[in-house]
Amino acid sequence: MNVYSLDTLTKAYNGRPILDIDHLELETGRIYGLLGPNGAGKTTLLNILGFLDQPTSGRLDFFGKTVRFQERELQPLRKEVVVLDQYPVLFTTSVYRNLEFGLKLRKVERPERERVIDEVLDLVDMTSFKHEPAHTLSGGETQRIALARALALSPKVFLCDEPTASVDIENQAAIIALLKEINETKKITIVFTTHDRLLAAGLAHQTLVLNKGRLVSTSYENTFPCKIEPVSGKQVRCQLPGNTWIFLSSSALQSGASTSRLFIDPEKIRLYPADKAPDSSPCLLGKVVQLMEEAARIRAVIDVGFLLTILLKREQYESLRPGIGDTVAVSITEDAVILSN
Amino acid sequence: MDILIGSLLSALLLVFSLDREMLAIVMVSLQVSCASTVLAALVGVPCGFFIALRRFAGKQIVITVLNTLLALPTVVIGLFVYAFVSRRGIFGPLDLLYTQKAIILGQIILIIPLVSALTIAAISRIDDRYRRTAMTLGANRMQTAKVILFEARFGITAAIVAAFGRVISEVGISMMLGGNIKGFTRTMTTAMALEYDKGAFSLAVALGIVLMSLSFGMNILFHFFQGKYRA
Known about the structure:
The structure holds two protein chains of two kinds. Chain A is an alpha+beta fold. Chain A contains eight helices and 20 strands. The longest helix of chain A has 18 residues. By secondary structure, chain B is mainly α. Helix content of chain B is 77%, strand content 0%. In chain B, α3 packs across α5. The chains are: A alpha+beta, B mainly alpha. Chains A and B meet through α2, β6 and α3 of A and α6 and α7 of B.
């Protein structure tokens, strides 16, 4: 069953397009990570999914029913979905009153309210804060109480805008564990935005990437702004950060634009020991700065003047055995590169 | 200097002996000022709330007009209301001139712009996340408005306190529309003006002390409650 189904959905502010999604379906009970650079439209999408903002055009279905963005119809839908801000605010009253707010609106009886509040405070490990004034809490505590306030309402969908961006490591771990737990035990569908690909990979069942308001099939990492210059009729060169140049055939260009975004597929980049770089293709020399195990693959981050992420299959890693600080050669072939405007 | 010290001492004596004439004047002042403040708040706060939250054509012009009206002299309002409530005015048959009602009417006109403008400022300062949070937790428009009103409570209270301070200390409207009738429309400020004219400073200084103490007390009370909710 789909929670959301989006069709040709767009959003524009003052005529400037912010969001342009052809088609997207989000299934019930899953966790979706929404990745993308600043200004990609992540928060706007989250607000539309939370019925706090309305699209300029297109269709949004919620549990199979087309949403009509009229205040009278949106209010009951908002009772099924809760949006958690990146920097949530608590009302300037007690923690208890904050947790009670949504329950009272839903006309939950007092004994039941008490039970639910105790349960969610226990879940976020904040029981001792029950009667504290909300404005005295720290950022991490505020985030957890805001989470508890949302959970108290047992929503069908939970939309979190960068849930771990404004908290310390300890609180990050607690929030991630909590999101996993509520998804597993309460089957709540979760959509969260993040810049952190590792968080998305670790928490989400599916990762979606937004770029300039559009869903893109590429990964968020290894996306760089680049300046394109023609070299000859058949070749162009792309200037990347760190004054690094990549040469591509003119056919790789989709239009005659002189600036673009360049995505390098981390799975298609070839890695060689520095002294065994092939002569057939030009290589960039760089230093290994990070190695990390990720599912069945190894993530290597190479400093080639800018930080380049490479995903190695375990066999590739075993045969190369690169170490931190080693100098390596990186080969970026044309099939690993996608240029977009 | 001797006159000032002498007046101050006899004024303190009047204050601490709870002089009946002084108390009667204070009571009239409080009655009139409280009534005009409450009525102006009932109109000004919803007006300010509406203007702050709604988008409409000419909103900026309305705010500019309100801000301009803050500088309206009390004698101009006195003159304006007089034209309506004097015997030849359209409200002449109501016999409002030289009554407390006339003073209240003038004072309401004086402070509605003040309450509205300060309410607009207070509401505009409220982070939009409060509105969005209330909405995502299931609040309808009215419930969301209540949340915003609650979060702006100190700003709105400050607006009402400022309005009370404005009316209790004004003299033009009280004098022109009240007529300074002893025991009926004589307020602290009009009594002070009269005593000054008579060259008798004791009661004037005593009323000045009461006036300052009232303002001081209200501000202390306001800051005490506001301070409780500061992080």
